[in-house]
Design a protein that fits this description.
The protein is built from 15 helices and 11 strands. The mean pLDDT is 96. The radius of gyration is 19 Å and the shape is globular. It starts with a strand and ends with a helix. It has a single domain, classed as 2-Layer Sandwich (Creatine Kinase, Chain A, domain 2). A hairpin with a 5-residue loop joins strand 8 and strand 9. By secondary structure, the protein is of the alpha+beta class. Strands 1, 2, 3, 4, 5, 8 and 9 form a 7-stranded antiparallel sheet that branches. Strands 6-7 form a two-stranded antiparallel sheet.
């Protein structure tokens, strides 16, 4: 059974005002002093962010429990220095991001200018184990049209600099300012994948292979495919659902590759439109069907995703739990809907943030 690991980026905020606080260095110092937390939390580009990574898991219930534990531990560490953590993909309140002191981060600031200074967004990355780079590349090629559906399910960033953007996932629109971000063309083989990344690095536009910010890529650190398309999810159970769907997609794609089934040959132009549509409306309106690239009701497209990976989910014992989790998500709404409902109820973006601090820990 394939292992799955999750990396979540959390926003550090003032528990009273809801404003982001550049306190990551202090939080990480606390984490390093605790043997149990060493290696769990990592430095990020901005001082207002804190990242954690779970251990690889085969059981999705265990993975969900670890996500909750990591979130609670992040909250404890932050609370010790007077701040809180919120699983928000963008800050609802205005913020001037603070770039962490680091040679690599300074290079990014000099190379990309204002795009770096405005990139305070929090994502969720899911790693799924693969047997080889060849299998991994085959998976990357075959999951491409389904990734916008995952973006829609995770959507959790309706606000930007104190205003409603009209999007469910504005994080994804900001993230796409990086020159190497977004969907990819078909690679066809691991050799072509690595050659493409090497050619990108050779241009000097990106620093190294770590900056191949594809929506799905071969991890440069682990024997995994890394899916990077999602917002950080407001609720831990949505993050667990996302990871379960990703593993199902990876396993289904690998089976198709072994069976000689060719990937859909959609252009990057169409895939970008599918991602834009998912970011705009989330799982609440219409999405582009991954097979036809024509608009369909979001519920129909999400059901098509579940049907597509049903055999893989059945084999891991996750099918019924995934059906239930998707039904729960439909009733509750994505993180963007929850945030907008909070604003309508309270009239205050500060109150939205403080409520989301509570949602983050369940």
């Amino acid at each position: 059974m394939r292992t799955v690991g999750v990396e979540e980026e959390l926003l550090l905020v003032d528990p009273d005002s809801g404003e982001p606080k550049a306190m990551s260095a202090a939080v990480l110092a606390h984490a390093e002093a605790d043997a149990a937390d060493q290696g769990v939390f990592e430095k990020e580009l901005y001082g207002q962010m804190l990242e954690f990574a779970t251990h690889p898991q085969t059981d999705m219930t265990e993975l969900g429990a670890e996500i909750v534990r990591c979130r609670k531990e992040a909250a404890r560490l932050a609370g010790e220095i007077g701040c809180a953590v919120a699983a928000l993909a963008t800050s609802p309140l205005p913020v001037s991001p603070t770039i962490s002191v680091n040679r690599r981060y300074q290079w990014l600031a000099e190379q990309y200018g204002i795009a770096t200074r405005e990139q305070l967004v929090c994502g969720c990355h899911v790693h799924v184990s693969v047997e080889s780079d060849e299998e991994g590349t085959a998976v990357v090629d075959r999951i491409r049209p389904w990734l916008p559906v995952l973006l829609a399910i995770s959507a959790n960033s309706p606000f930007w600099q104190g205003k409603d953007t009209g999007y469910h996932s504005y994080r994804s629109r900001v993230w796409d300012r990086w020159p190497s971000a977004g969907p990819t063309e078909l690679f066809g083989s691991a050799e072509r994948y690595h050659r493409r990344v090497a050619d990108m690095v050779a241009t000097g536009v990106i620093l190294d292979e770590k900056m191949a910010y594809f929506d799905a890529r071969l991890s440069e650190r682990y024997p995994t495919v890394e899916i990077r398309v999602a917002d950080v999810c407001l609720h831990a159970e949505t993050a667990q659902l996302l990871a379960t769907l990703v593993r199902g997609l990876v396993e289904t794609a690998a089976r198709e590759w072994r069976a000689g089934i060719e990937p859909a040959d959609h252009s990057v132009s169409l895939l970008r439109l599918a991602a834009w549509q998912a970011a705009r409306t989330g799982p609440a309106a219409r999405l582009l069907d991954p097979l036809t690239m024509r608009p369909e009701p979001a519920d129909v497209v999400v059901r098509a995703l579940l049907d597509h990976i049903a055999d893989a989910l059945e084999d891991t014992g996750d099918l019924e739990r995934t059906r239930e989790a998707l039904a729960d998500l439909r009733r509750r709404g994505d993180g963007a809907r929850v945030q907008r409902e909070l604003l309508e109820r309270t009239g205050s973006l500060r109150d939205v943030v403080t409520a989301c601090v509570r949602h983050t820990q369940g």
